[in-house]
């Protein structure tokens, strides 16, 4: 039996191995801390890569900033943290509280550490990454990874590292414009996260990052370096506000009404084909002299954040009541009446006629501009969140669901995985669920959000939300319930769209739940990682190398990470010879973490013929079972890979 390593990928060692495959003569050996290790002979590597060596302070084009090398090291350094399941916060596929069968993941913790843990398991499996990182406006909280401080000094003072020296929870600090490292701190935060994220993408995968004016050029330079300038697909300009806040005043102060979405492909974008959003599949039950048509209301809510009295005008003798307003301006409404595209129903409601021949054109991706009519605005995004979880959600800015749905429709197919590691209010989760409901897809999402505490004096805290994660998880729960109860796609007003559409047929495979996981210190005691430091007198207190507060479920998920088994895999719990056995991914992995395991249990597991079989190092009932363990597997399942922890 082999021991599991139980730590994340060592990025430096992997890079050395990759370089060694291309340039074996560049591999050398060095002695560090009494151990001989492989290393790179950079003089040889430079000579292999150039006929004239670039070295010293020779001028050349490059993008750099203080502590850039430390940011690169941060991306490569391995950790021994783990992800622990939180069943109580999870939701089942069908919306059942506490269910754990969903294939979506909501992960609480520092996204740098989480990305490292996902690096092997989801290597090359994510089709689309969308992030909405801090814009660095001077009022944003950014992750402080303390690259400017010597490692041992930071470890001793921060309180964010465990006894093995592993960072567990990142710090969030306000990055004010008075900070002398204003752009440096932001770049040090974003660089290692983007670097690791690249490995998770499929060969035809894309990464999309929302950003404002302040860091647009820096983000583009970082993305150019990591993904390659030639792999920039496009830069969407998103009209994030319908109009400036001081529009109509005598003196106009210029304001920003647009943000950006940078899109990069992992491979040559010229070889990729992205989706044209097709015309919606609808039925047209009515017909007149202009052709077949369907009907939809031309009124919308005029309450709360939607109230706009200027949209309650008279047209052709009709004026909306106080609770409603027109969806369009007077010129448009009058034109619809004049061209026989509108009528007043028997119930006294203005209805628009949607003719089949006028709705057949598909929606092509717009490279330069995404209009608010297509994608919603920051204001509508905030209002959406307010309607789901209450106005006391604590978010000043929220991306609208329609924007993320537009990006999901353009860049993914029905079975893809979408990752968002700055998930905030969990807009991405709602967008994926709604898109799956609309086109009967089975896309899966992975959301990552640090457990940022809500302001104790703020409205969100008073409403019961202790952390940003609480807001995001509650949003997903309520969005799922709303979609299931409506049985179809919802508008921004929470109203069923087009009742004549066949797309409103409920998706029987729809997964509205999520598995909640939380970043934590390793399940293993320090002896597991540094056995050479244990004295003989300590051995009797360390018979078990697993921390006493950890459950078998905790161990299972760390094993799944270590072996590269998808964290969304189906998990079945069986009892075999009185012992609890986890069957993961229909027999791919069988794991038993109970004590006093007998030959009967070992034999039964071997007869199932799993690809992996995992036990605790101290789990065998006696020496006889331990001695016969390998022979049992050689007899019944010699191909099974046996591991212990």
Radius of gyration: 28 Å
Strand arrangement, major sheet:
4-20-5-19-18-6-9-11-10
Helix-strand makeup class: alpha/beta
Report helical residue fraction.
25-40%
The parts where pLDDT drops under 50 for at least 5 residues are: 147-162, 165-169, 488-504, 536-542
| CA(first)-CA(last) distance | 10 Å
What is the 3D form? Answer: globular
* Percent strand: 15-25%
How many helices in DSSP terms?
Answer: 18
Considering the chains and any ligands shown, give keywords for the structure.
single chain, 645 residues, alpha/beta, 9-stranded mixed sheet, 6-stranded mixed sheet, 25 strands, globular
Descriptive notes:
By secondary structure, this protein is an alpha/beta fold. The protein has a nine-stranded mixed sheet with strand order 4-20-5-19-18-6-9-11-10, sandwiched between helices. β22 (579-584) and β23 (589-592) form a beta hairpin. α12 packs parallel to α14 and α17 packs parallel to α18 (623-636). The longest helix is centred in the N-terminal third of the chain and has 19 residues, at 182-200. The protein is globular.
List the SSEs and their pairings.
Blueprint: E1 2-3, H1 11-22, E2 27-32, E3 35-40, H2 42-49, H3 68-76, E4 82-85, E5 105-108, H4 111-121, E6 126-131, E7 141-144, H5 151-158, E8 171-174, H6 182-200, E9 201-211, H7 213-227, E10 232-239, E11 258-265, E12 286-288, E13 291-297, E14 299-301, E15 324-326, H8 330-338, E16 342-344, E17 350-355, H9 372-375, H10 378-389, H11 401-411, E18 417-420, H12 427-439, E19 444-449, H13 459-462, H14 468-486, E20 515-520, H15 526-529, H16 552-563, E21 571-576, E22 579-584, E23 589-592, H17 599-608, E24 612-615, H18 623-636, E25 641-644
Parallel strand pairs: 1-25, 5-19, 5-20, 6-9, 6-18, 18-19, 23-24, 24-25
Antiparallel strand pairs: 2-3, 4-20, 7-8, 9-11, 10-11, 12-13, 13-17, 14-15, 16-17, 21-22, 22-23
Helix pairs in contact: 3-6, 4-6, 4-16, 6-7, 11-12, 12-14, 17-18
């Amino acid at each position: 039996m082999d021991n599991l390593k139980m730590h994340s990928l060592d990025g430096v060692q992997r890079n050395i191995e990759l370089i060694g495959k291309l340039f074996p003569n560049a591999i050398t050996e060095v002695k560090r801390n009494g151990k001989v290790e492989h290393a790179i002979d950079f003089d040889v590597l430079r000579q292999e890569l150039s006929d004239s060596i670039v070295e010293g302070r020779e001028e050349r084009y490059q993008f750099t900033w203080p502590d850039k090398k430390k940011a690169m090291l941060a991306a490569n350094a391995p950790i021994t943290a783990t992800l622990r399941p939180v069943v109580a916060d999870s939701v089942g596929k069908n919306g059942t509280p506490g269910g754990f069968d969903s294939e979506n993941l909501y992960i609480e913790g520092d996204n740098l550490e989480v990305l490292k843990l996902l690096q092997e398991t989801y290597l090359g499996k994510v089709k689309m990454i969308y992030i909405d990182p801090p814009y660095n406006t001077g009022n944003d909280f950014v992750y402080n990874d303390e690259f400017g401080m010597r490692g041992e000094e930071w470890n001793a003072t921060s309180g964010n590292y465990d006894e093995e020296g592993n960072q567990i929870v990142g710090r969030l600090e306000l990055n004010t414009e008075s900070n002398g490292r204003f752009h440096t701190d932001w770049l040090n935060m974003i660089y290692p996260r983007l670097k690791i994220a690249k490995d998770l993408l499929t060969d035809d995968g894309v990464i999309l990052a929302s950003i404002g004016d302040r860091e647009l050029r820096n983000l583009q330079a970082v993305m150019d370096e990591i993904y390659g300038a030639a792999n920039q697909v496009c830069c969407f300009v998103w009209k994030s506000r319908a109009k400036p806040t001081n529009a109509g005043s005598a003196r106009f102060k210029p304001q920003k009404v647009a943000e950006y979405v940078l899109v990069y492909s992992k491979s040559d974008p010229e070889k990729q084909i992205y989706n044209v959003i097709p015309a919606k599949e609808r039925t047209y039950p009515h017909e007149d002299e202009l052709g077949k048509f369907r009907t939809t209301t031309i009124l919308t809510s005029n309450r709360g954040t939607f109230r706009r009295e200027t949209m309650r005008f008279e047209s052709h003798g009709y004026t909306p009541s106080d609770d409603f307003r027109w969806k369009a301006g007077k010129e448009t409404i009058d034109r619809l009446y004049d061209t026989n595209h509108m009528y007043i129903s028997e119930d006294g409601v203005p209805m628009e006629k949607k003719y089949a021949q006028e709705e057949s054109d598909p929606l092509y991706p717009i490279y330069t501009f995404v209009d608010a009519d297509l994608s919603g605005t920051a204001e509508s995004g905030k209002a959406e969140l307010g309607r789901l979880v209450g106005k006391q959600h604590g978010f000043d800015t929220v991306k609208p669901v329609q924007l993320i749905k537009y990006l999901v429709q353009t860049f993914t197919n029905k079975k893809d995985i979408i990752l968002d590691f700055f998930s905030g209010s969990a807009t991405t989760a709602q967008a994926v669920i709604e898109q799956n409901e609309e086109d009967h897809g089975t896309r899966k999402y992975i959301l990552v959000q640090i457990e940022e505490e809500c302001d104790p004096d703020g409205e969100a805290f008073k409403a019961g939300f202790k952390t940003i994660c609480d807001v995001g998880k509650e949003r997903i729960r309520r969005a799922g319930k709303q979609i299931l109860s409506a049985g179809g796609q919802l508008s921004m007003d929470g109203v069923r769209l087009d009742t004549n559409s066949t797309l409103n047929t409920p998706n029987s495979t729809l997964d509205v739940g999520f598995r909640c996981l939380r970043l934590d210190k390793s399940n293993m005691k320090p002896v597991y990682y540094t056995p050479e430091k244990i004295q003989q007198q300590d051995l009797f207190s360390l018979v078990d190398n697993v921390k006493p507060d950890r459950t078998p479920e905790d161990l299972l998920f760390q094993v799944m990470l270590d072996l590269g088994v998808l964290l969304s895999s189906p998990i079945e719990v069986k009892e075999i010879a009185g012992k609890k056995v986890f069957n993961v991914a229909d027999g791919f992995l069988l794991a038993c973490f109970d004590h006093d395991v007998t030959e009967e249990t070992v034999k039964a597991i071997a007869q199932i013929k799993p690809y992996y079989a995992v036990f605790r190092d101290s789990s065998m009932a006696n020496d006889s079972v331990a001695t016969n363990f390998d022979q049992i597997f050689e007899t019944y399942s010699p191909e099974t890979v046996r591991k212990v922890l």
